[in-house]
TrEMBL record:
Cofactor: Mg(2+)
Gene behind this protein: rnc
Chief location: cytoplasm
DRBM domain span: 160-228
Organism, as annotated: Streptococcus caledonicus
Residue positions binding Mg(2+): 47, 120, 123
Quaternary structure and interacting proteins, as annotated: Homodimer.
Name of the protein described by the UniProt record: Ribonuclease 3
MF-aspect GO terms: ribonuclease III activity
Amino acid sequence: MDKLEKLLNDRFGIVFTNKAILETAFTHTSYANEHRALNISHNERLEFLGDAALQLTISRYLYKKYPDMPEGDMSKMRSTIVREESLAGFSRQCGFEHHIKLGRGEEKTGGRNRPAILGDLFEAFLGALLLDKGISAVEDFLNQVMIPQVEIGNYERVKDYKTSLQELLQVNGEVTITYQVINETGPAHDKVFEIVVLVNGEKLSRGKGKSKKLAEQEAAKNALEQLQ
């Protein structure tokens, strides 16, 4: 924990008063389960709290930054900023992946680089920061880490192909759009998912990705290209 505390102080000027809550934020359920006799807390509850703080902070930023943007567009933009892959990237940007406590099994299967774990870790850290320093500290941290990426337009360029496909197909009435996993390849820590998109039960296109969400977006993108 000493290295983590030094990292936070040197890079972000953050010094936790409650060291225990910081340690909890960086403790995965797999580690806590392997050390049940020690009654160690894991970070899932902090993740819940951090998610709420993140949603509020980003929502308030978008509301002020884009005074003429409709609610629907703000929601779409926020979803791209706070999605799992984005949060995992911010965890890596901060160097958090080196400090999370994982169980032996999770460690062996590449959990330290898994987007779901790193995304949850980022939210858990925000939850701990909220409890220790308050919402202003969360905002200051996000202004250093996340907001610069939004300012340069990274998330304006992220396309929600699933929503675009739904809007295109439902112009003339309701249709049923579903996504099904048809294949998984690779080891547990580095899987590739292949997904097919079906419209009213009929196959339209396929997509591949490192997560189901990314594969769905790729399938929707391919469907749009096919239709247009």
